[in-house]
Amino acid sequence: MTSRLAGDVVGGRYRLAAELGSGGFGRVWRARDDTLDVDVAIKELRLPPGMPETERAERLARAMREARNAARLRKHDGIVAIHDVVIDEGLPWIVMELVDGCSLSEHVRQHGPLPVGRAVAVAVALLTAIGAAHREGVVHRDIKPANVMLAGSGKVLLTDFGTAIHSTDTALTATGMFIGSAEYTAPERLRGSDGLPAGDLFSLGVTLFQAVEGVSPFRRDSQEATLAAVLLEEAPAPQRTGPLTLLITRLLDKDPGCRPTVDEALAMAGDIAGEQPATTVRVRRDTKILSARPKKWQPLGVAALMVVMTAMAVISALGVAGLPDAGETWEHFEHYGDNAVVSLAVLIAAVADVVLAGLVCAGFARFLPANVGKTVTAVVGVAGLVFGCGATAFAFHGAGEIFRNAMKLSGRESATVSLALISIVVLVAVGSAWISQRPDRRETVRCRTRS
């Protein structure tokens, strides 16, 4: 095999122009496709002279596997596309999409850590690409900053499937031989549980940590120390990750069962970005677009809407009952015992009920479509608040009248009972709404306890 130089033609059509990068297994060239008159990237497999035949055969098989696995994902916009594989002088050359940009590793080295906002976009793009690969049965196994391309157009692409494995692939690496980058490798893979999809998520966590902090969390002075750090040490506390801290922390969990799934991680990243992942990462035709939130949020939203509507119906019905003489119930508070402190406390509780019920009604603005103008949303919210305050005032009196007539209570007793009931309903509703918004926190506590 002769050493290739710029100007050489590979496969009868690809003219090498300049070397773009190199690694242990080969080099990547910028080349010109003389047939189509377009620029491409082409990967040259490196086989040093004197290499044992078994290792030579393994490298050839791995190169073909890389092309097959990447070709399975050629329709996905977040993965560098494979165009062709040509055999020249008995060796495979992989022809790929040429990305006008640099790797994430080069960007951090030259320009420093990414801002959190940009890192969130990178996380969404990589999670979408990883999800597409996993759905096709492909586990990348070597996600790291050097294998993430940042295109000048703003696209983020995952590349280099040289160590990837498909669910139908057979083992290529000899026992005791490790292929990959130790500092980005999941601890379970180092223990022998290879090819698990959760391992890619751990590697993504390390990649995002380095992208925002500027340093690799498990890199040490020697390979042995690095392996020990991945297996036994926790990542340093991040200083710059801001709202990404929870996502990165969960991705770096030593227990693969406690890491979020791709869908869960996408939902977390989408919440941080404040937009749907599909709006920041374009996916080509025939590729499923992942939703920003898990499906478990949909029934919760419907249930919340039904609860609010039921509460409004009850308040309105009670308010109708209190319309005939709305002022009488409030007069009871003016003579509520001889203790001025008690009278003041009861009045404060009554006013709080009115305000809280109004806020519940104003919450209907949350269910308006996102594209509705802010002015319309504000008007709906204010209208809900006004309606809620008025309706609750009448409902308070109506409840008192109903209890007094049904149970033959005194005016003071009926006022006390209705106040207590409305207070309980409002507090339960507010508490339930607050708890329902924190499922990720409960899941994180559960997983951290297990680990």
UniProtKB/TrEMBL annotation:
CDD domains reported in the protein's UniProt record:
STKc_PknB_like (cd14014)
Enzyme class, UniProt record, top EC level: transferase
**Which Pfam families does the record cross-reference, listed alphabetically?**
Pkinase
SMART domains for the chain:
S_TKc
Keywords recorded for this protein, A-Z:
ATP-binding, Kinase, Membrane, Nucleotide-binding, Serine/threonine-protein kinase, Transferase, Transmembrane, Transmembrane helix
UniProt key word Repeat: no
Instruction: Give a yes or no for keyword rRNA processing in this entry.
Output: no
Name the residues that bind ATP. 43
Q: Name one GO molecular function term.
A: protein serine/threonine kinase activity
Q: What protein does this entry describe?
A: non-specific serine/threonine protein kinase
Q: Which species is this UniProt entry from?
A: Nonomuraea insulae
